[in-house]
Specification:
67% of the residues lie in helices and 0% in strands.
Length: 768
């Protein structure tokens, strides 16, 4: 759906679609299962005094004597008989499960055996009592099993209690069992809602959707209600929900299925879903979802459409935004201040400021329609002011700020002033920027944070002296600045190599008792070391130590590198020693710097000593550093020392070494007449999957020629043929001289033609 930048025709369409009357329609829904429905027993008014009197008699009389108590019997079994609600309330009012159960058994013995349905209501109260017990799970299930033996039918409320209790006790299998054994008339929407809630909490998403699917059938006599929707929508978005996660497409399908039964998600949930779809780039699905909900006459308001407009704006899909606005207008969904803000922000990003201003003016025109007012907020004003300043229309931005204050009584914030000051700095009108800062002081809204922003703006535009003047002026007016202010200024002066001024500011910062951070040290020391001003760098280090500011390895490494470049290795060692004393451990950069210095100065033995110390400390030198040291020893004819380095590198390196690393040592070994060791190294090289190149073969041919190991030379020639490695000019020069002297020119010719030349049968080079 991506569309190029706005064109004027599309702007006109956007503005036309905004001619709507603003109003709100707020939709609130619960996100929980909701209360139980009214109980099915007769809604007659019970005599509360009679219930209280009966409970008192039950508590005063031992339960074995209840049948003999005439006063009790006359209260319980009067003519006409009390309602089921009477017995329900008495059972629930007894203080313990045991007493309630005894009372229930008394009723069971007193009523005719065929009149068990009358006991359903006191049995429901028994379940409530049992649910408060410590062993509630086992007791409730025992009661449920007993109700089947006693042929006591469950009420809807009792079924809900059992399913909910077992769900909260994480005994969802029992909830499912009870639901499956209920008579069809008891499997009401409410009962199903409670079961679905339990299933979702337990992560049984697929099972929950199966129960829901029965409710969603066209001829279902238990259709979903608003509570069903709240349970489903809440369950699907809960982040820590266990079980199968539905795809966005499956969620949309479910939303629309519920919508066909008049059950719709609340505004907050729907807005989140639309936002998620937009973040995933699924704009078509989001548009279709809202369109279908409107078709189903869902009571939608602006926020979900705002979420869609935000997503389309980020992808610069103006055509899509126009379509959404048209849908809102056709469905009489009124834009709110957020809608306008999204459009203005997008137009400003595209630098279509005139169109953004036209949208802004529409807010004032539409304000007051239908008795509802929409007013631009500070965010919208700041967006417009920033857009005007970015296209060089700073004066208009300033006028808009005045309109903001006078017309709507809004107070400009730091962002408002920052946009304007940034605009004036870009235009080279520094004084106008300072006037605004003075205005902030008059209004009492200038703070150190604001000052830091303005100093940074001026420094970024190369107005460092103006930033200093501003800082000094603010100090005269009581605004002292903080570490951030100094850091910004010091960094700016370091960037232009004005270290004297940077150091002056650094001293001023310490005198003002600002707590300097490591960033200042990094900038100062790095820049001073880079330009070779090591005495100043050392002085800065001393001042930091005096101020009690701890440095990190980055600062120390910069000093080590600086002194090494000045060939002051003793001072570099002092820095390393100081690092260790203050608890900052030298790292691989520290050691590598010293190794490189010793290597460049031809002191390979000292470089090796530092490398050994580095390895001992647990740091691995770079392969490049190993190669440099190996080369240094090879040049001195110390190939055996280089070989030790090579073996050490092989043991610590996690990856196979490169051909060039092998070549350094092979060439040196051959020059030192260690040809057989070189042959062994070449075999190791191939065994580890490192391919030889012309440099490798030529070094070996030279060494074998010096030792006149002709048979090994021919095996090596066959090796080149086998690996299809073409000989170069150096190879042919060495072999021509050697084989012609040995009278083997025919073999040389055969080699040139790509044929093997050694004797038949398996032959290996004679490395031992």
């Amino acid at each position: 759906m991506n569309t190029p930048l706005l064109v004027s025709k599309k702007h006109t369409e956007l503005l036309r679609l905004l001619k709507l009357r603003p109003s709100y329609y707020l939709l609130h829904r619960r996100l929980c299962a909701g209360p139980n429905p009214q109980p099915p027993y007769p809604p007659q008014q019970e005599d509360e005094s009679k219930i209280t009197q009966t409970v008192q008699l039950l508590l005063e009389t031992p339960h074995q004597e209840w049948s003999c108590s005439q006063p009790l019997q006359s209260l319980l079994f009067t003519s006409p008989p009390p309602s089921p609600c009477f017995f329900f309330k008495i059972t629930r009012s007894l203080p313990s499960y045991c007493q309630a159960f005894n009372f229930f058994k008394h009723l069971q013995q007193s009523f005719p055996a065929e009149d068990t349905h009358f006991l359903s209501y006191p049995f429901e109260a028994i379940l409530q009592q049992a649910g408060r017990e410590l062993n509630a799970g086992s007791r409730l299930f025992e009661l449920y099993q007993a109700s089947k033996d006693w042929k006591i039918p469950l009420t809807v409320s009792a079924a809900v209690l059992l399913i909910r209790y077992f769900g909260r006790l994480e005994m969802v299998d029992k909830s499912i069992l009870i639901f499956n054994e209920l008579d069809p008339p008891l499997k009401t929407t409410h009962v199903r809602n409670v079961l679905i809630d339990d299933l979702l909490r337990d992560g049984r998403v697929e099972y929950a959707l199966q129960v829901l699917d029965e409710m969603l059938q066209p001829i279902s006599n238990v259709p979903p209600d608003d509570v069903t929707g709240d349970i489903i929508f809440h369950g699907l978005v809960k982040r820590d929900r266990k079980g199968v996660n539905l795809t966005e497409e499956e969620i949309i399908k479910l939303v629309l299925q519920l919508g066909r039964h008049g059950v719709f998600p609340n505004t907050i949930w729907l807005t989140r879903l639309v936002s998620k779809l937009c973040r995933l780039g699924k704009f078509n699905q989001a548009c279709n979802l809202l369109h279908e909900l409107l078709r189903l006459q869902a009571p939608l308001v602006a926020p979900p459409f705002n979420a869609l407009l935000t997503g389309l704006g980020r992808s610069r899909d103006v055509k899509g935004m126009i379509a959404v606005l048209a849908e809102m207008k056709e469905s009489d969904i009124k834009p709110d201040v957020v809608t306008y803000g999204i459009l203005i922000n997008q137009l400003c990003k595209l630098l279509s400021i005139d169109d953004a201003m036209e949208v802004f003016n529409k807010i004032s025109e539409e304000s007051g329609s239908d008795g509802h007012s929409i007013e631009a907020d500070v965010v919208i004003y700041n967006t417009l002011i920033d857009g005007l300043c970015k296209v060089g229309r700073v004066e208009e931005g300033l006028q808009l700020m005045e309109r903001m204050k006078s017309a709507q009584g809004l107070v400009p914030d730091t962002i408002t002033y920052t946009c304007l000051i940034d605009g004036f700095c870009k235009a080279g009108e520094i004084e106008r920027g300072k006037e605004l800062i003075d205005k902030m002081i008059e209004d009492g809204v200038l703070s150190n944070a604001s000052l830091n922003i303005f100093v940074d703006v001026m420094c970024r535009h190369g107005r460092i002296n103006s930033a200093i003047e501003l800082f000094n002026d603010m100090q005269g007016k009581g605004l002292k600045g903080n570490a951030v202010t100094y850091t910004t200024l010091i960094t700016a002066f370091c960037d232009v190599d004005n270290f004297d001024k940077a150091i002056d500011l650094f001293d001023q910062m310490l005198r003002s008792e600002c707590s300097a951070d490591v960033t200042v040290c990094h900038n100062l020391i790095y820049c001073l070391c880079k330009t070779g001003q090591m005495d100043d760098a050392d002085s800065v280090l001393s001042k930091f130590k005096q101020a009690g500011i701890g440095l990190d390895s980055v600062c120390y490494n910069a000093l080590v590198n600086g002194f090494v470049k000045r060939n002051d290795v003793y001072k570099a060692y002092e820095i390393v020693k100081e690092m260790e004393e203050v608890g900052v451990k030298p790292d691989s950069v520290t050691y590598d710097t010293l190794i490189a210095y010793f290597f460049r100065n031809g002191n390979s033995s000292l470089a090796l000593r530092v490398m050994k110390q580095m390895i001992k400390k647990g740091f691995e030198p770079s392969i490049t550093r190993y190669e440099a040291l190996m080369l240094a020893y090879c040049l001195k004819g110390k190939s055996k020392v280089a070989l030790k380095l090579f073996n050490n590198l092989s043991s610590v390196s996690k990856n196979p070494l490169k051909t060039i690393t092998y070549n350094i040592l092979i060439e040196s070994l051959c020059k030192d007449n260690e040809v057989k060791v070189a042959l062994s190294l070449m075999e190791d090289m191939k065994a580890k999957g490192v391919k030889p190149d012309n440099t490798t073969y030529n070094a070996m041919f030279k060494g074998l020629k010096e030792k006149n190991l002709l048979e090994d030379g021919m095996v090596l020639m066959d090796d080149m043929i086998e690996h299809s490695w073409p000989p170069d000019n150096t190879t042919m020069e060495i072999l021509t001289e050697w084989l012609s002297a040995a009278g083997e020119l025919e073999k040389l010719k055969s080699f040139q033609q790509g044929n093997k030349v050694s004797l038949p049968g398996p032959h290996k080079m004679t490395a031992r």
